[in-house]
Amino acid sequence: MSEKLILSIYFGYHDSAVTVATPNKVLLHLLAERYFGRKNLRLDMAGMEELVDAALCHLGATISACERILLASWASPYEEDAQSITLLGKTLPIARTGHHRNHAFSGPNRPAHGSLILCFDGGSEDGYASLYEVDRDKLSQVACLDETLLTGKFYGTATQLVLQPHFVSAHISDTGKLLGLSAYGSASAEIEKLIRANADDINELHVTMPAELQARLGLSDGYDKPWMDRYRLDFAHTVQRMWEQELLTQLAPFASDRQLLLTGGCAHNVVANSLLANSGMFSKVIVPAAPGDGGQALGALFDIYPATATSSPYLGRSFASVAALEAPALAARVSADLLAGQVVGLYQNESEIGARALGNRSILALASDPENLQRVSIDVKGREPYRPLGPVALEGLIPQLIESKADHSYLGFAPQATAFGAERMVAAVHVDGTTRIQSVNERQNPVMFCVLQQIRRDRNELALVNTSLNVAGKPIADTQQDAMECFESSGLDVLYIGHRRFAKAGPHDGS
Asked: Could you give the C-alpha distances from 271 to 236, 296, 406, in angstroms and in order?
């Protein structure tokens, strides 16, 4: 490889990653969890060296081609005053990057002058939650929201109290579960009063389980089957409603005809994001494909090398190429399996960045079949029964299916389904009527676009259940071996790896 390369590295406390690029193009973004097979993995220096080496090897490059490192400061193992670091035997100059700024520039387009950015997460050298105004290339803090409820501390501790006593799991991987659970509860003025009386303690990080706080809030210490515990359901629902109200209240003074970017781990609260987008407070609300810490290395790169910014979320490794011209033929085979009632794994081209499957590492099934909620979520993936599935649909059908003003390319929003959408996507609409939908056009994902066209043409099916190609507790499949292990250990009926089809004999096997 003749071009000089840039490495952008993020250690952090979870979701370590490396991005490899030229000054004009992202070549690869590799998450530690995908390479090592452990969710939300934090790397030490030896682990990062292995990850960087794997990324370079995938590109047919070596460390000798690299000329500079962008190093995220948060939780970096290197000395603060270091001007260079040695990686894989080569000493390279470094440029340090900041946590909130990396989040702010992780979107597909450079933030416009005058636009607003809300960074909110579980904490960094920049605090927990701040609202920024973009002043050309500068970020000006217009509000520090660390003492509000809009922090990863608040929602993470609530998750710790309701679902998962383990600190790391509760804050990093299970907050989405609390959101899913909340739909089954009801708002309680009594619980809200308790939460507000104890808000300062909830809005803290508790590395050891806060049993006394849990008891003070009226929650039992039993975590078995929380979906059967009415008080836990109402507690989760009340937390979510309070979060939504806090978001609207804190941002109301800044409402204007300009764009707002939501980023940081708290931007995964897709229901609150939709309420804000539909509120009309801002001209547009944007959520990037990787708003969490897994997008830190990308954000640093997009900031310092603006020409590398891209709207494509498909920046991971590819082990099974499908050309755009080959998409219709593959889609015809995939759609035939789907219309025969099969649950299908689709593994093709570069993997997606971020925490959500966007069609290249996906499990698919007909969204119109109500049985597919249990089949996919519980029988195939082994998830808890209260967790919803989301659909994928053609971009042109989105206005018929949901009530939303947002862009649904990256699964950043979960608006209310329309009555028509709820009827046609029954397996992918949650009990509260929300649905985290992905829109697809031909440019974004030719294979998925053609599959959706084919099922509509053949049987007037309008959407598919779309969830990540993995089982509960495992990262999204990265390699072909990962995909095969998922296929063999789960209830998947069919798996496509590129053009190759693997099928199991059984009641849903149409081959």
From this structure: 14, 23, 12
